[in-house]
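Field log, afternoon session.

UNIT: design team B
ACTIVITY: writing a sequence onto a fixed backbone
BACKBONE:
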């Protein structure tokens, strides 16, 4: 798609206040593919004012009508799914088949789920002599990341719109083109002016201005835990509600009774997916000591197959970050069994699929989120040791458990301090709540639980 040279404000594309621009680069070849405005506080203020002005009418719009607009949005996105996939491939570097199957298809499904929820959700209930009424929280400031750019936009904007909120979106500066495409789809779907607004810009400028704006009632942020702390602190000054989906260091626990080959192969695929740029990736593989060597050999063989199958990481800074962690893993005594810091291509920000063995729980690569195609394999002595290691980080976003019997895996999963656990390779469910424990965030996305984040409660006594 051709980049817009303006911001989407109050139902139209308008020039930004300043002349600064952001150059969008293709991570695979480092070439410029577009330029978008670097919006500043003045632009953010105008967008928030438009959203506030549109709020009363949109909040009063019957849920069935909001559902109709969301259905139209889903249909527009579905009609443009090929363009979505091509855009994400260009600005994120994701291989086209993955962009088609995940970056385009999942947001379309999520948009459809909120169209249905808007039509069927109960926004009122009788409790004794009270009527409990659910109302939109107000103006939502949505700040989204680059790793799943359209999915994260839809996971925030769709439930907010379903709830009757109005939205100002600040997308990641690395992937703003698909955000512009989403704004086009909102416009085509017939949403009233001001209900959705888009400001492209830098996080420390436009993102900060949005988080601290007094006209924003809720800040929904997805990104690193470090930036999430800043967003929460900024919002706290105004006692503003936040929803934070942050980092992860998820454990893939393979119990002795599991099908080891399947668990390892699926686990490696999970880590390499999206070039490792997935907050919920199972980046720690936990294997019983008696099967450890076999698992390491299987993982190294599996990782080698991904050399030409994954795309680059998003930018040069991220490439350097991931390489730094690989170097630190080696320095701390982990054994490199696949990949490393050698660049697999002359151009582009690629990182080799990497697997470490002999990783111990206290190592940096076992504690910190790397956000690249890097897997750490840890050994455990017994089930209690596995649980201690699995729960032994500041994160708690996702995880996996494998066992010969489903009940055995479920019993272990119930004791994990994490928000979502896949049992024996369970499939992603766009209706299930997604979010973390501990420093992986506050609140939930997707399904009815995601809708609840954008609602507030009022009780009327009779």
């Amino acid at each position: 798609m051709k980049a817009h040279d303006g911001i989407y404000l109050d139902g139209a594309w308008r020039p930004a206040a300043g002349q600064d621009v952001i150059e969008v680069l293709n991570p695979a070849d480092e070439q410029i593919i577009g330029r978008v405005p670097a919006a500043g506080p003045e632009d953010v203020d105008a967008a928030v004012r438009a959203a506030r002005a549109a709020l009363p009418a949109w909040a009063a719009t019957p849920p069935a009508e909001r559902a109709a607009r969301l259905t139209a949005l889903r249909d527009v996105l579905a009609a443009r799914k090929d363009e979505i996939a091509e855009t994400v491939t260009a600005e994120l570097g994701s291989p086209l088949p993955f962009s088609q199957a995940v970056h385009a298809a999942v947001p379309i499904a999520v948009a459809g789920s909120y169209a249905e929820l808007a039509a069927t959700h109960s926004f009122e209930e009788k409790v004794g002599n009270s009527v409990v009424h659910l109302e939109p929280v107000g103006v939502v400031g949505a700040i989204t990341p680059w790793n799943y750019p359209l999915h994260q936009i839809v996971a925030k904007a769709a439930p907010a719109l379903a709830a009757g909120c109005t939205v100002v979106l600040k997308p990641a500066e690395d992937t703003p083109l698909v955000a512009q495409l989403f704004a086009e789809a909102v416009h085509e779907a017939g949403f009233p002016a001001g209900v959705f607004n888009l400001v492209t810009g830098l996080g420390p400028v436009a993102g900060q201005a949005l988080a601290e704006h007094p006209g924003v009632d809720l800040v929904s942020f997805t990104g690193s835990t470090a930036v999430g702390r800043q967003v929460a602190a900024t919002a706290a000054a105004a006692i503003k509600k936040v929803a934070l989906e942050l980092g992860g260091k998820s454990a893939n626990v393979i119990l002795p009774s599991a099908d080891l080959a399947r668990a390892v192969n699926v686990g490696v695929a999970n880590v390499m997916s999206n070039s490792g740029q997935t907050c919920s990736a199972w980046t720690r593989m936990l294997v019983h000591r008696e099967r450890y060597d076999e698992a390491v050999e299987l993982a190294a063989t599996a990782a080698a197959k991904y050399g030409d199958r994954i795309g680059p990481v998003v930018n040069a800074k991220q490439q350097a970050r991931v390489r730094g962690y690989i170097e630190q893993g080696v320095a701390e005594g982990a054994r490199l069994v696949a990949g490393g810091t050698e660049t697999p291509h002359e151009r582009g920000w690629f990182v080799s699929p990497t697997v470490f063995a002999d990783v111990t729980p206290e190592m940096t690569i076992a504690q910190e989120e790397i956000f690249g195609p890097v897997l750490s394999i840890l050994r455990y002595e017994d089930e209690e040791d596995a649980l201690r290691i699995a729960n032994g980080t500041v994160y708690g976003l996702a995880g996996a458990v494998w066992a010969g019997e489903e009940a055995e895996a479920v019993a272990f999963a119930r004791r994990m301090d994490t928000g979502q656990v896949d049992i024996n390779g369970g499939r992603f469910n766009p209706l299930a709540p997604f979010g973390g424990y501990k420093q992986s965030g506050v609140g939930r996305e997707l399904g009815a639980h995601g809708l609840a984040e954008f609602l507030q409660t009022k009780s009327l006594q009779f």
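LOG NOTE: The two ends are 56 Å apart (CA to CA).
NEXT ACTIVITY: expression trials, pending approval
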